[in-house]
Specification:
This protein is mainly α. Helices cover 70% and strands 0% of the residues. The protein is elongated, with a radius of gyration of 19 Å. The longest helix is centred in the N-terminal third of the chain and has 29 residues.
Length: 211
């Protein structure tokens, strides 16, 4: 339908602009121009407000990633798994790839990375506990499988969360610039990332553990 095409065009244009410049730096007029919309009220007609549009974009991507993670975990748990930390890390990583149209990487991760840094309270209010069930399930499996004291493990899980978002955002940006990027395009890069994350939660504790 024509309305669906217009809505999708506005969403794609807005997310691309937000990813490049941040939400606060982009005006409604710029979004509509980029989306090819002549009616200056179309964003408000379809979404209510710019803030409502932002929330919809955050939820759309978060739901997609969460659905993918939960589907993988459901299949593994039905078979008695996941049995290894590597399997869990793959569930964390792979669903965050191919988020664009036609399987491309898109710009969702860059959008939420910028938005969460600049508008942390708004981001957390949108996401809440509603769209990270798959992530929380992964953390519980890591806690079950990782051979580290709880105090150490919880600290490393924070490092893992921060590092994973930064790395996947950098990957998305690299592939957006060049889909055959020498570093980011080979499958071996993701394999190395999986193994790196495994190492973060399986390595032995060293030192006193105090700063």
């Amino acid at each position: 339908m024509k309305a669906d095409i217009a809505r999708d065009a506005i969403k794609r244009a807005a997310q691309s602009l937000f990813a490049a410049r941040g939400v606060d730096a982009v005006s409604v007029r710029e979004i509509l121009t980029a989306a090819g919309q002549r009616n200056g009220a179309s964003l408000h007609y379809y979404f209510g407000s710019k803030d409502d549009l932002v929330a919809q974009l955050v939820i759309d991507g978060a739901r997609l990633i969460d659905d993918r993670r939960n589907a993988r975990l459901d299949a593994m748990e039905t078979d008695g798994g996941p049995r290894t930390l590597r399997e869990v890390m793959e569930v964390l990583i792979i669903p965050s790839t191919g988020l664009g149209q036609d399987g491309g990487e898109g710009d969702y991760l860059r959008f939420i990375s910028t938005f969460s840094l600049q508008n942390r309270a708004a981001f957390e209010a949108i996401v809440g506990d509603g769209w990270n069930l798959g992530y929380q399930r992964c953390l519980e499996h890591i806690r079950r499988l990782a051979p580290l004291p709880p105090r150490v493990l919880e600290r490393r899980l924070v490092f893992l969360s921060l590092g994973l978002r930064a790395i996947m955002t950098a990957r998305e940006a690299g592939l957006a610039a060049d889909q055959d990027h020498a570093f980011w395009s080979p499958q071996g890069t993701l394999d190395d990332l999986v193994q790196t994350l495994v190492g973060m939660v399986s390595g032995a504790e060293t030192g006193s553990g105090q700063c």
